[in-house]
From TrEMBL:
Annotated localization: Mitochondrion inner membrane
Complexes and interactors: Interacts with CNNM4/ACDP4. Interacts with RANBP2.
Summary of the function given for this chain in its UniProt record: Exerts its effect at some terminal stage of cytochrome c oxidase synthesis, probably by being involved in the insertion of the copper B into subunit I.
Membrane topology qualifier: Single-pass membrane protein
PANTHER family, per the entry: CYTOCHROME C OXIDASE ASSEMBLY PROTEIN COX11, MITOCHONDRIAL-RELATED, CYTOCHROME C OXIDASE ASSEMBLY PROTEIN COX11-RELATED
Swiss-Prot/TrEMBL keywords: Membrane, Transmembrane, Transmembrane helix
Protein's name according to its UniProt entry: Cytochrome c oxidase assembly protein COX11, mitochondrial
Length: 102
């Protein structure tokens, strides 16, 4: 992905069980310092997703890397940014803590 240009990626999720699952996805950007330049335009994360038994879905994320990434001297040696997601079953009444806050 070239900084400043939009990109579309798909993440595959599968429910291997015999019951429906409602889940939520959270994301991570590595290296952490590059996270400030990662901008999601549209994403499935932080929204509940229902997966039926044995269902497999492709979930889209539309994003761009801020062009200022290329101007930041601390990012000069960063050639690879990894975006990863964790999908976990939502529990009724359970609230997610906000990252960085206690």
């Amino acid at each position: 992905v070239v900084p400043g240009e939009t990109a579309l990626a798909f993440y595959k999720a599968k429910n291997p069980t015999d019951r429906p699952i409602i889940g939520i996805s959270t994301y991570n950007v590595i290296p952490f310092e590059a996270g400030q330049y990662f901008n999601k335009i549209q994403c499935f994360c932080f929204e509940e997703q229902r997966l039926n038994p044995q269902e497999e879905v492709d979930m889209p994320v539309f994003f761009y890397i801020d062009p200022e990434f290329a101007e930041d001297p601390k990012m000069a040696k960063v050639n690879l940014i990894t975006l990863s997601y964790t999908f976990f079953e939502a529990k009724e009444g359970q609230k997610l803590p906000l990252p960085g806050y206690q």
